[in-house]
Amino acid sequence: MKRRHCARIPKPVQDQVAEIEGLHRSRRLADDRRRKASCRTQIYIYRLIPMRSPRLSPHTLGVLEELLASPAKWRYGYDLMKATRIAAGTMYPILIRLDGLGWLESKWVPPVEEGRPPRRQYRLTAAGKLGARHMQTRAGLAGSPARSRA
Prior knowledge:
Elements (H helix, E strand, L loop, with lengths): L10 H29 L18 H12 L5 E2 H8 L3 H14 L2 E6 L9 E6 L1 H14 L11
Antiparallel strand pairs: 1-3, 2-3
Helix pairs in contact: 2-5, 3-4
């Protein structure tokens, strides 16, 4: 068995080889990460500043005013639509937004007749009452005789 004699590689050359191998290794790792990241299609979007009050639109004010007329009473969305003359495509997003803010509490009511779907009822919470009154004062409707209920 013959022994091979290995030539010693000078230190500066060893450093260069190590640096090149390190670059290749880091590129491979970066490529692997990119490949793995491209397989993920989930995107997370977070609201950094929480919504404190709903948009101050005439429709939102009308819904809040109608609910303030009898804050303890449970109301159906359809009844609110009839009372405020707001279309369903506008009413239900407002109710969902107010419910999400904690201004409304909602519950599902089982159907009265067989074959009918369950319905959802809404009423103002304590925070909703305060918020609704604050919104009315912001809009300048608190003392308005045309909008206030007796």
